[in-house]
Amino acid sequence: MKELVASGYKVVIFTNQTAASKNKQLLNELLDKFKKIQSVVGIPMQYVVATKQDQYAKPSTALWELFVGKYNGNSAIDKTNSFFVGDAAGRTKNGKKDFSCSDRKFAYNIGLTFYTETEYFMKVEKEPFSWDGFDADGAVKLEKSKQEIQQELKHLRLAEKQEMIIMCGPPASGKSSFTKLMLVPKGYVAINRDTLGNMEKCLALARSSLESGLSVVIDNTNPKPASREAFIKIAKERGIPVRSFVMQANDLLTHHLNLLRVRMTNGKVSKIPDLVYRVFKKQWVFPAKSEGIDEILSIPFIPNFEDEQHRNLFKEFA
Asked: What's the pTM?
C-alpha cells in the first residue's frame, strides 16, 4: 500500500457502519479505530462512511458520488487504473458464506475493477462467487413503452365498466407504479393509505367515488381477507364488481425496488424494514372468489422508466 501511495494512488475506505448513527459511543470507537489503522499502516487514508441504511449505504453509488463531488478536492479519477478491494464479495467457501456481496456490487456499480482481500493481498486465484441479487441488467432488456404495456395487458379489460380493483402484493412490488401508469389515466380513483393517512379516509373515498359513478383502485398491500373485506362490502352494497390484481414479485425484485425508491427520492422515501416484509408474508392469504371477488388476475413486472436516470439507477446492483 505504501508503494501505491508513493506511485500516486490515494487510499479511500468506503464503509457501511449503519449502527453508528444511533450510538455515539460506537461512533467514537469507530473514529478511534480509523486512527489506529492509519497509524499502523503509516500512509494517508480517507474514510467515507455510510452511517444509516439510507441512499448512501453500499452498494449504492451515492457514497461514491458524494466523495467525488465534495471530498476529493476536484481531482480527476482514473477509473481504468483504480480498483476496489473488499471482503463482502458473495463467496461461499468451506460452508462459510460472506456476510453480503455489497463490496463487489459497489465496485461494479461505480465501474471499478474488484479484488477480494485474499486475491489482492495474498495473491490467491480468482474465487467463485454469487451476485445474490436481482438481475437488473436482464430486466432492463425487457423494458417496454407505455403503449406496449397497454397492448400486452389488454386482456385486463380496463375501464370497460365501473368497478373496484383491489391491488395485492408486498411493499415495493410495483403496485403504485402500475396504478399510476395503467389505471389513473383511465379514470380510476387511486386510494392509498400512505397518501390518505388512515383506513377511515380510504373507505370514505372509496364510498364517495363509487357513488359518483367512478371506478376505484385500492392501492394498498391488502395481504389478507380482513384487509380487503370492508372495501369489498362497499362495492357489493352498490352492485359494483370487484377484481383483484396480484403483483408477480419475488423477494429479489421487491428488495431491488425498495432500494431503488430510496435512491430515486434521494432518501426522502426511507427503506422499508425487513420486518415489514416478514409481517406481510405472515399475513399473506391469496385472494379468493369466496371473499366476494369476481375475478383474480396476476400482474407481471414489466420495466418502464421515467427517464435515463431512472433506467441507470434501476440497473445498479442493490
From this structure: 0.86
